[in-house]
Amino acid sequence: MQKEISIHSIEQVGQNLANLDLKRELRRGIPEVVLGEGKTSRDIVKIVLSALKMNSAVVVSRIRREDLSTICRALKRRRNRVEIGKNSTTILARTGFVKKRSSGGKIGIISAGTSDMAVAEEARLIAEAMGCSAIVRYDVGIAGIHRLFPALKEMIAASVDAIVVVAGMEGALASVVSAMVNVPVVGVPTSVGYGFGSAGLAALSCMLQSCAIGLAVFNIDNGIGAGAFAALIANRMASNSNKIKI
Amino acid sequence: MQKEISIHSIEQVGQNLANLDLKRELRRGIPEVVLGEGKTSRDIVKIVLSALKMNSAVVVSRIRREDLSTICRALKRRRNRVEIGKNSTTILARTGFVKKRSSGGKIGIISAGTSDMAVAEEARLIAEAMGCSAIVRYDVGIAGIHRLFPALKEMIAASVDAIVVVAGMEGALASVVSAMVNVPVVGVPTSVGYGFGSAGLAALSCMLQSCAIGLAVFNIDNGIGAGAFAALIANRMASNSNKIKI
Amino acid sequence: MQKEISIHSIEQVGQNLANLDLKRELRRGIPEVVLGEGKTSRDIVKIVLSALKMNSAVVVSRIRREDLSTICRALKRRRNRVEIGKNSTTILARTGFVKKRSSGGKIGIISAGTSDMAVAEEARLIAEAMGCSAIVRYDVGIAGIHRLFPALKEMIAASVDAIVVVAGMEGALASVVSAMVNVPVVGVPTSVGYGFGSAGLAALSCMLQSCAIGLAVFNIDNGIGAGAFAALIANRMASNSNKIKI
Amino acid sequence: MQKEISIHSIEQVGQNLANLDLKRELRRGIPEVVLGEGKTSRDIVKIVLSALKMNSAVVVSRIRREDLSTICRALKRRRNRVEIGKNSTTILARTGFVKKRSSGGKIGIISAGTSDMAVAEEARLIAEAMGCSAIVRYDVGIAGIHRLFPALKEMIAASVDAIVVVAGMEGALASVVSAMVNVPVVGVPTSVGYGFGSAGLAALSCMLQSCAIGLAVFNIDNGIGAGAFAALIANRMASNSNKIKI
Amino acid sequence: MQKEISIHSIEQVGQNLANLDLKRELRRGIPEVVLGEGKTSRDIVKIVLSALKMNSAVVVSRIRREDLSTICRALKRRRNRVEIGKNSTTILARTGFVKKRSSGGKIGIISAGTSDMAVAEEARLIAEAMGCSAIVRYDVGIAGIHRLFPALKEMIAASVDAIVVVAGMEGALASVVSAMVNVPVVGVPTSVGYGFGSAGLAALSCMLQSCAIGLAVFNIDNGIGAGAFAALIANRMASNSNKIKI
Amino acid sequence: MQKEISIHSIEQVGQNLANLDLKRELRRGIPEVVLGEGKTSRDIVKIVLSALKMNSAVVVSRIRREDLSTICRALKRRRNRVEIGKNSTTILARTGFVKKRSSGGKIGIISAGTSDMAVAEEARLIAEAMGCSAIVRYDVGIAGIHRLFPALKEMIAASVDAIVVVAGMEGALASVVSAMVNVPVVGVPTSVGYGFGSAGLAALSCMLQSCAIGLAVFNIDNGIGAGAFAALIANRMASNSNKIKI
Amino acid sequence: MQKEISIHSIEQVGQNLANLDLKRELRRGIPEVVLGEGKTSRDIVKIVLSALKMNSAVVVSRIRREDLSTICRALKRRRNRVEIGKNSTTILARTGFVKKRSSGGKIGIISAGTSDMAVAEEARLIAEAMGCSAIVRYDVGIAGIHRLFPALKEMIAASVDAIVVVAGMEGALASVVSAMVNVPVVGVPTSVGYGFGSAGLAALSCMLQSCAIGLAVFNIDNGIGAGAFAALIANRMASNSNKIKI
Amino acid sequence: MQKEISIHSIEQVGQNLANLDLKRELRRGIPEVVLGEGKTSRDIVKIVLSALKMNSAVVVSRIRREDLSTICRALKRRRNRVEIGKNSTTILARTGFVKKRSSGGKIGIISAGTSDMAVAEEARLIAEAMGCSAIVRYDVGIAGIHRLFPALKEMIAASVDAIVVVAGMEGALASVVSAMVNVPVVGVPTSVGYGFGSAGLAALSCMLQSCAIGLAVFNIDNGIGAGAFAALIANRMASNSNKIKI
Lengths: 246, 246, 246, 246, 246, 246, 246, 246
What we know:
Eight copies of one chain form a homooctamer. By secondary structure, chain A is an alpha/beta fold. Helix content of chain A is 43%, strand content 17%. Chain A has helices at 2-17, 22-27, 41-52, 68-77, 117-129, 148-157, 172-178, 201-208, 223-245, and strands at 32-35, 57-61, 80-84, 91-95, 106-111, 133-137, 163-167, 185-189, 215-217. In chain A, the strands form two sheets. A five-stranded parallel sheet of chain A has the order 6-5-7-8-9, with helices on both faces. In chain A, strands 1-2-4-3 form a four-stranded mixed sheet, sandwiched between helices. In chain A, helix 5 runs parallel beside helix 9 (223-245). Chain A is globular. The interface between A and B is large, with 41 and 41 residues.
C-alpha cells in the first residue's frame, strides 16, 4: 500500500512538471555551455551545431589544444562565427546570421598573471555570449601593484556593475581589489602555482578568507561561472534601467 | 644608495595616500563590522559606542553568549537601538535618533536547517544595516524540498535582486535554488555537520562544484560577507532605478 | 518580463506541492529523529512531546550526558516510555499507551570495541522504533576474530535481512564480515581512534576501499542512518512476505 | 615452546578451513569481477575464459579503451556473448550456451550527468550478471530537476527494490532522491568535477553528510559495488517472494 | 536454500573456533592493556583488579590526571604494586606477590624533548611488563645532537636488541638514529608541535619518508605499540639464546 | 663482532663531542626560549630563575593567561625585570642588574590585524632579547592598504635590515610588502581566520605561494622564530659594520 | 670573533669524523640500494657495476619497464647474476663469482592482492641480498581469509623471525595477521586502491590504527625498507644463535 | 554620486603611480626570472633576448628538457653566455659583453640527495645572477651525516652570510644544519619522496616544525626564491662593508 501512495504523489508532481524545462524558462539568460574535455572534435562539432539551432551562442570550454583548429574550421564552414579565447582553448560560437545582441550590461575582468589569462578569457566569452560587454586588463598582479590603479580607475569610470578578478599563486589580487572599490567583486582562483597550496588551493583559501568584506568566490578555474554571474548582475542592472527608461 | 631610492619612491606614494582612507571613501556602502570573538563585553561596548559616533549602524558578530545581555543593556542605556539575530549572538546596533535608512534594495535569504539560522541572521542584520530589506525563509532544506517552492515564488514576486542561501550538511540547497531562479544566488556553507566533510567542508565543496552555472560562494559561516555582497547588488540596483527616475 | 515567467513557473510548481509533505507521505517508515546536540533539556522535552502527538516513536540522539536523566524523567512523567541506549546518550521515546508495533523485520548489529557501542545502540534504537527487531553482538573486533564466527552464525540462522557493522580504529571488521555472508552488510565507521586517520577517517576509508564487493557505508558515527537503512530493507522484506501470505 | 602452541592452534584452524572457499560458498550471489586496469588484453582474455568455465557471467571493469575491441572479438570468437557498457570500458561476458538467468529482482539506476554514465553502466552490468533487471535513467541532474520526477515515478511503479544514484560534481542528486522515495537508496559519487572537492570528494562528502536519513554510500566510481549491493537486496526480495509462493 | 549453506559453513567454522582464544594463546607475550580514556576511576580499578587475576601485569594508559592518585591508592590497597610513568598518566600494575619476571630482553628508548617523555614512558612500562629491561635517555633532540652520541654508545655497549625513538616536532631524531646503528630502530612520532604538520603529522611523515633504510614506524603517540614491538624482538632474542644455552 | 665496531665508532664520536655544547657555542646569539604551554606557573618561575643565572635574558612564550601575573610578580620579587608582550602571554625576563645590551641591529615588524599582534610581539621580544631594536607598526592590513605606505617608508628610512610581516586570514600583506621593498622580508602566518583555510593554512599557503620572489616563511604563529631570524640578520649586519669601523 | 669559535668547534668535529663512514661501518648489514626512477638505463648499469666492486649484492628498484631487459643483459654480460622481482621492475644483482651468502635468517612475506606482489618482491629481494631466506605467500587477501591460515601455519612451523605483510585497498590483512601470531609483524601499505583513501592512504591509516597491539608500519610501497628491517631482525637472531653455538 | 568619489580617489592614486614601476626601482637587486614551464622554446628565446636588453642577467627556470639545447644554442648565437644548472633545466643567460658583476656577497648551498641537486642549482644560478658567489656541497644527507661537518666548516671559514639547505624526503638536514651554525639558514623542501608526505609535504612540514629556532622556509622546490633571499642578505652585508670601507 505504501507504493500506491508513493506513485500517486510522484504522479502529481510529474504531471505538472513534465512539459516544463524550468532551467530553460527561468535561467535563459545563461547560454548553453559545452564541456569540451573528454569529447572528440567530431562530437563537439555535432553538439555545437545542434545547440546553435536553438541558441544564438554556445560556449565550448577546455577543448584539447590539438583539436582547436579542426573544430573552428568545421563550425565556420557551416557559416557560424567562432571566437577563440586568448591563450585558452575555450571558444564562443555564434550563428552567423544573427546580429550580436547587446544587453547594455558592462563588467570588468582583471587577471594577475599571463597564466591566468585563459581562465579570464572564459569569463569574457560567456559574458559576451550573454550580450554583456567586458573591459579586460590582464597581467596586473600584486608583484606590480601600481599597474592596478589605472585599470580600476578606467573600470569605475566606465560604470562596470561587477568586476571579476582572476588570480593564481597566492590569489591576493582579489582581496586587494575588493578592498578598493564599491562594485560587487567576484574572485576566481586559478590552478597556477606549485608546492604547498598548489592546484589553486592557496588562491581559493586566500579569497575565501579575505579580510575585505564582501568578496564572492567561484571554484578554481571556473571562469565560466564567474563571468556568467557577473554578467547576470550587469544585465539585470541594464535591463532595469531600460525598463524604467521606456 | 639603494636606500635613497627606496625612501624616495615610498615617500611619493606615502604623500599622496596619507590623508586618504580608501576604504572609507570607496566602500562606505558596507557598515563597520566588529568581531566579538575574543573581546571582553566591556571592550565591545566601548568599540561600538565609538564607532556609532561616525556610523549610523554597527554589526557585532560572534559575541560570547554569556555577554550578550550585558552588552545589549549597556548599549541601550546610551539610547541606541539593538537588534539580536535569532538563534545567534550577532547584533545590529543603531543610534537611536537617526531614522532607519532604507535603500530600496531587496534580497531573499533562505536557510536549510534550524542550526543554519544563526548564520542566515548575520546576513539579514548586515543587509538591514545597509538599508536593504530582506525576505527570510528558514528551515527549507532539501529533505523537505516542497517547502522550497512557495518560498522562492514569494521572493521572485517581490522582485528581490539577489538570494542568499545558507546551508550546512551537504549544502545542496544552494545548487537547487541556483538551478531554479534567474536572480544572482549567493551560497553560504555552514559548519553544521559531522564525520567526513564536517566543519562545513562538504557544504563548501558542494557549492563550489555546483553543476548549476553561476552560484557565487562565501566561506563557511560567513553570513556577514554574503549578506553585504547581496545588499551591495540590491542597493546598487535600487540606487540605479532611483537615479534614473529622478 | 523575465520575472513574470519566473513567477508563473514557480507558481505552477508551488500550487501543486503546497499541501503535500512529500517526506511524510513517502518515507513515513522512518520515525522523527531529533538531534539533541546544542539544545537545552527543556527544548528537547518540548520537541519530543510535540512530536509524540503525531508519531508513536521519536529518537533523540546526542543528548548532553548531564541532561539525560532530567529529560527521561520529564518524558516519563507524561506517561511515555523511554529507553536509553547502552553507553550512549541517545534515547527512544514512545507514547505509553500504544502497543509496540512489530514489523516482522530482523537485522543484526555487530560492533568492534566497547567504545563503538554507543553508535551501535543508535542503530538498534532507530531500528526498533521502526518495528524491526535486532540481534546485537558487541565487542567482536578483529583482535579477537574467533568471537565473530558464532555471532555471524546466530544471525544467519535467525534469517536477518541486513547486518550493520560498527567499527572504529582501522574498521576492518566490516570488510571481514562482508566477505563472509551473503546478506547485505552496512558499515558504520566510528570516531574511535588516534593519530593518523583519527576521528574515524581510517575506518571510513577502510570501509570505502573494502576489497569485499558490496559493502555499503554510512558517515562516521552515523548509527541512526545505518540502522534506519537496514531496517528499511528488513521491513520491506517482511512486509513483502506478509503481503504475499495473505 | 611458544612456537609449538602457535603451530598447533594454527594447525587446527588450518585443517578445518583448508578445503573451504568461504567466499565462493557464502557469497556466490556476486559473480567474478576482474579489474582490467594494468592487465594486458591477452591476460584479460585468458582470465575471463578460465573464469567462464566455472561461472556463467564475468564482469571486467576498466579495460584500456584501445584494448576493448580486441578483447571483445577474442571472447566472441570462443562463442561467448559480450556486452559493453555505454560510454564505458566495462564489459559483461557470458557463456554463449547458458540461458540468461533471471532472478526476478528489479532495481533502478539514475545518473546525473553524461560523464557519470560509465559508472552507472558498471552498476547495471553487474546487476544483470546477477540476474537482476534494471530500469535506467541517465542525465537527470539537479540542474534539470524536473526530469527527475517521471523517472522516479516509473521506478516506483515498477516496484524496484533499491535505487542506485550515480552523481559527480556536488553529488546532490542522491540526497534529493533519498528524500523522496521509501525504497533503499544507494549513492555512488563519481570523480567528475574540478577544483576544490574534485576527484569525487565533494560528491562523496555530500552523500555521507546527506540530511536525508538512510542514504547508503559507496566509494568514488564504485559502480560495481553499488550495483551488486542493490541487486543483492532485490534478488533476496524476489527469492523470498518465490519461496513463499511455492 | 542459500541460507542453509551459509549456516552450515559458518557452523563448521564456529565449532572449531568456539573454545579458542587465538589471541591469548598465540600472542600471550603482550600483557593486557587498558585504555583509561573515557573510563571512570572506579571502572578502571575494577577492570584492573579483574585482569590481575589472570595476568601478572596490566598497563593502563591515558588515565585522567585527576584520577591518577585515586586509582593508584585503590590498587595498592589491594596489595598490588603500581608504577606511574614519568610526566605521564600511564601506569603499570603488578600483583604484589609475584616476583618481577625478567625475560632477559633489553631495549633502548630515546626521546627528543621533555614533552615526548610521556609517550616514551608508555613504551618503557609495557616493555617492563613484558619482562624486558630498558635503557632510557630522554631530552636528546637534534637541536642538541651531540648529546645523542654517548646515549647511543651506551645502548650499543649494553647490547640492546631494538631502539625505540620517540620524537615530536619534525621528528628527525628517528632518522638520525636509524642512520647510525645496526640494531632495528622503531620510531614513534608524538603529537607535540604546532601550525602546519601539527598533531604529529610532520613527525609521522618525516619518519615514514626517512632516507635511512629500515626505520619502522608506529602511529602518533603510540608508545605502547612500539614498546611492545621492541620488547617482542628483544625477548625473542633472549629466549632464543636461553633455549640454545640449556 | 659487529657490536665492537659499533661501540668503537660511537666512542670516537662521543669522546670528541662530550664536552661540547655545539648549540651554546655556535648559536649563542639566540637566547633561551621556554615554552610556557603545559607547565605550571611554579615550574616556569623555577626554570626562568635557573636560566637567568647563565643568560641575561629569557623569553617565555604561551603562558596561560591566568598564570601571567603570578609569574611576573614572582620574577620581579627576585629583582628581575619583566616585559609582557601586548595582547600576548609571552614575556621577556632580564636580570635586573645587567645593563640592556644593544647589538646595533634594527628590524621592522608589521602586523595585519589586532588579533595578529600577540604573534608580532613574540617577534619583538625575542629580537629585543637579542639586543636588536624593532620598529613596530600593527593593524596595517590590506583592507586599509594606504596605511601601509608610511609604515614602510619609516622603516626604510630607519635602515632596518629585515622586516617581519605577521598576518592571518588570507595573509596577503606579506606578499604586498615583499613586492615593495628591497630588504629581506620574513612572513609569519597566524592562526587567525575561520572556515576553509582556517588555523593559518590560508595565510601559510599564501605566503609560500607568493609571486613576489624572495619571501621567507615561518610556521603558523611562530613569531619567536621569525623575530630571532630577522635579528640574526640585523645583528650580523651591525656587528659587521662595527668590526670594520674599529 | 664568533666565527673563530664556530670554525674551531666544527673543525674538531670534522677532524674526528673525516675518515669515518659511519653508515658503512655501523649498518653494513643492509646492501646498497639504487633508485632506478629518473635514471637512464646507461647510468643505472654504470652505478651498479661500480657498486658491485665493493658489495656482493646491489638492489635496483623502480626501473622503467622498457629499460629492464637492456639493463639485465648489460649486467649479465659482465658476468653478474641478476634476479628480477615477479611483476616488478626491481632487480637484485650479484657478482657472479661470489657464492650466495646465507645468514641463516628466515622471514615470511605475505601479500593481499596480485597488484601488491611487486612491492612484496622488493621485500624478498632485499632480504635475500642480506642473506636471509624468505617464505612467500601472495594473493592471501581478507576477501578469501581462509587461505591465510595454512600460510601462517607454514611460516610459524618454519620458525620465521618476522613476517612482512603487504596490502593495498583497506590494508586490513596486516591487522588480522598481527592479531594471530607472536612473531614481530611489519606492515607495508601499497598504493593499490581508488577513490577516498586511494594512493595507499586507507591502507596506511588502517595499519597505523590497528587495534592489534604491536604492528610496525612502513611507508606506502616501501617494500625495500620493510624487507630490510625484517631481515635485520632475522639475521640478528641467527647470528646470535650461531655465536652461542660456537 | 558614489561613482564620482570612487573615480576621483582612484584618479589621485593613479596619477601618482602611473609612471612608477615600484618593483623595478625598489627591488632591482633581483634579476628577471622567466618561468619556462608551458612556454615554447621560441617564445622563451624571444622573451630572454628582450629582457637582456635591459638586464645583464636573466634566469629561465623549468625549461622542458627537450627544448634545452635549442634554447641555449639560439641564445649563444646572439652572443650571450648561457649556463645550465647541473641536473636541472634552469639556465642563467648573460649578455656576452658585460663583465660578470661581483657583489662581494657569499652564500653556502647544501643539498641532501642527488635528486635535490636541480633545485639547489636554481638557488646557485639566481645568486650568481645577483653577483653573489656560492660555495656548494651536494649529496650531504643525514643518512651520511659525517659528510656534513667538513662542508659546514668550509662554509663558516669562508664567511658565508647565509646557508641554503635543499632537502627532500624527510627534509631533516635543514634542522640539523640550523642547529649547528650561527648564520641565517634558509630551508627549501623538494618534491623528492613517495607515499605519505610525498610531493614535498613531509620535508616542508619538517622544516616548518623545526625545533631549531630560526630556520626560514621556502615553498617546495622554490630554489629560486631561497637563492635570491640568501643573496639579498649576503649582498646587503657586502655592500654595507664596502660602503663603510670607502
